[in-house]
Design a protein that fits this description.
By secondary structure, the chain is α+β, with helices and mostly antiparallel strands. The chain is 31% helix and 20% strand. The strands form three sheets. The protein has a seven-stranded antiparallel sheet with strand order 3-2-1-12-11-10-9, sandwiched between helices. The model has no long low-confidence stretch (mean pLDDT 98).
Length: 327
């Protein structure tokens, strides 16, 4: 397993990578490779904190499903029931449709992806898109939308009566043992935070562009260690966060209104590999590429967090390879 990881780090020129593996109902392996901060020669360690990027989405989805299980969110009610500040559109849509990217909410623009404005709250991060029309009738197709997850984070606040981060700390991070997980803050001093890198056309390494993720926290603005994410996967499997029947709802491939299957469940990409059910999420944004990969029937999970942009797909391939080695 470590030989495969080292080979991938070398092949793709990844400056720093942290890994975690969950197997047999326990966190079995954590390790780090390379450098968290190239300029200052700081090695990556299991304590290195990375942006989770879109691996944040399964965390937010778990919070929504907890509230649904408690009767505080109806997945099929209009979103305005929980986010009354969001205007009604030409068609209604629901938390379920947001979770599986069928709500018709647009994705960010390039400028928004490389955002440098700081948003102090989830409510503030609705303002720049809340008056935009839907781009299609909900349920008729799929469009991946991190902005849709802003609405889900706001729904968590509306249904629970708590701040989004407070809710996660109490109901997800603490029960799962995610000791260093939190919200990315470009102004805060976060110990052990990795620096982020991109590659030029010739393969040369550069610092990542500036990007403030406060405009997309629930869908791409959390931070943590690989161990934190591994503990999240473990807590999902053991029932510490959701009962099995609720968890399984997340892993069901969703369909459009006319019955066409999609590649997405509720907060997770879903599929099969070598005849086994798999669920996963990739993350990619300035500073990082990330993957959380799970085999839900066995509970095996593989986590890779790296400080190089653009290597999410190779990390997913590596996660599948590691899962096959362990199995």
């Amino acid at each position: 397993m470590e030989a495969a990881i080292n080979l991938a780090v070398h092949r793709y020129g990844i400056p720093g990578l942290s890994a975690a593996v969950v197997s047999g109902g326990a966190l079995r392996f954590t390790a780090a490779y390379g450098t968290a901060d190239v300029e200052n020669a700081v090695p990556a360690t299991p304590l290195t904190i990375y942006r989770l990027a879109s691996v944040s989405k399964p965390v937010t989805a778990t919070a929504v499903m907890q509230l649904a299980a408690r009767g505080k969110i109806d997945l099929d009610a209009p979103i305005q029931r929980y986010v009354p500040a969001y205007p009604e559109k030409q068609w209604p849509f629901t938390c379920r449709q947001l979770l599986c990217h069928q709500a018709g909410v647009r994705q960010w623009t390039d400028e928004e992806f490389h955002n440098t404005r700081h948003y102090a709250s989830l409510a503030a991060a609705l303002e720049f898109f809340k008056n935009d029309p839907l781009v299609f009738e909900p349920g008729t197709r799929t469009l991946y939308s991190s902005l849709g997850y802003n609405l889900l984070g706001a729904a968590v606040e509306g249904a629970s009566g708590q701040d989004y981060l407070d809710y996660l700390r109490e109901n997800v991070f603490t029960p799962a043992g995610m000791e260093t997980a939190g919200i990315d803050d470009v102004f805060a001093l976060i110990p052990h935070r990795a620096q982020g890198y991109q590659k030029g056309a010739g393969g040369e390494l550069y610092n990542s562009s500036l990007s403030d993720t406060s405009n997309r926290v629930p869908g791409g603005g959390l931070v943590g260690t690989a161990e934190d994410v591994g503990r999240f996967a473990l807590a999902l499997h053991t029932g510490a966060l959701l009962k099995k029947e609720t968890r399984e709802q997340m892993f069901v491939r969703q369909r459009t209104r006319d019955g066409r299957p999609t590649g997405y469940g509720l907060g997770w990409a879903v599929g099969t590999d070598r005849g086994r059910r798999e669920v996963y999420h990739l993350g990619g944004q300035p500073r990082v590429s990330t993957v959380l990969y799970m085999l839900p029937d066995s509970g095996l999970a593989v986590v890779f967090l790296s400080n190089l942009e653009g290597v999410g797909t190779p990390l997913l391939d590596l996660a599948r390879q590691v899962a096959e080695i362990i199995r």
